[in-house]
Amino acid sequence: MCYEEECECDGVGFPILGEPAPDFEAVTTHGKLKLSDLKGKWVVLFSHPADFTPVCTTEFIAFSQAEAEFKALNVQLIGLSIDSVHSHLAWVMNVKEKMGVEIPFPIIADLDMNVASKYGMIHPGQSSTAAVRAVFFIDDKGILRAMIYYPLSNGRYIPEIIRLVKALQTTDKAGVATPANWQPGEKVVVPAPATMEDAKVRLSQGYECKDWYLCFKNL
Question: Which residues form the Thioredoxin domain (predicted)?
């Protein structure tokens, strides 16, 4: 098992869903940041291969344009790449000057690959010196709830990241699951019954049931 200060599980440098997200303290474009200080907020930590690169620039613009929506969900965005803070600052200023977009969230400078190693962001099949496009969803209690990895060549779809945050928060609030292609406001999935008695009872509870094990309801 992995615990808060560990970065390897059975020799593989990946954090584990449902366990505390590996803590870190890092230099960012907004000053020093310690992950554990952000408890009480949800965190979307995402890595990118390098500053001043085309796909990364489009992603940071997209994240910045959606920042208000993330903030409304009590989400702190945090970017990261294996670049210096000076490179980050120059890139942020360039995006503001050339594209007219201000990047409002901190970007971690991870030259020693400390955070990247803890979160399994370095995939040698892609690059040994650049982070892949990883996304980590950390809840307000500091627990890692979901993660998505993309290759260097393809940018992320920000609406899916927002949708997944909403799905996770809906699960926590209502004790339900969300089906494939779920969007906020749509029916959710009632947890599967654990006993025969539960299976019988649920058929009389007014749910929309396809069968005893698959029932939907409105929130």
Answer: 15-170
Q: pTM (2 decimals)?
A: 0.90
Q: What stretches of 66-142 show up as alpha helix (H) in DSSP? A: 67-72, 85-99, 114-118
SS3 35: helix
How many Å apart are CA 18 and CA 144, to the nearest integer? 6
Is 156 annotated as ligand-binding?
no
Q: Known catalytic residues?
A: 56
DSSP state of 36: G
List, in sequence order, every residue forming a beta bridge with 149; answer none if it has no partner.
134
Predicted confidence (pLDDT) at residue 26 exceeds the cutoff of 80:
yes
8-23 average pLDDT score: 76
What Cα–Cα distance (Å) separates residue 144 from each residue in 85, 136, 214?
Answer: 26, 7, 27
Q: What does the angle CA 105 – CA 164 – CA 107 come to, to the nearest 5 degrees?
A: 20
Lookup: tokens for 120: 């399994």
Task: State both tokens at 31.
Answer: 């000053």
Q: Which residues pair with 100 in a beta bridge?
A: none
What is the rounded end-to-end Cα distance, in angstroms, of the chain?
Answer: 35
pLDDT of residue 6: 41
Residue-wise pLDDT for 90-141, tens only, equals 999 999 999 999 999 999 999 999 999 999 998 988 987 788 999 999 999 9
| Contact of 142 with 35, CB cutoff 8 Å | yes
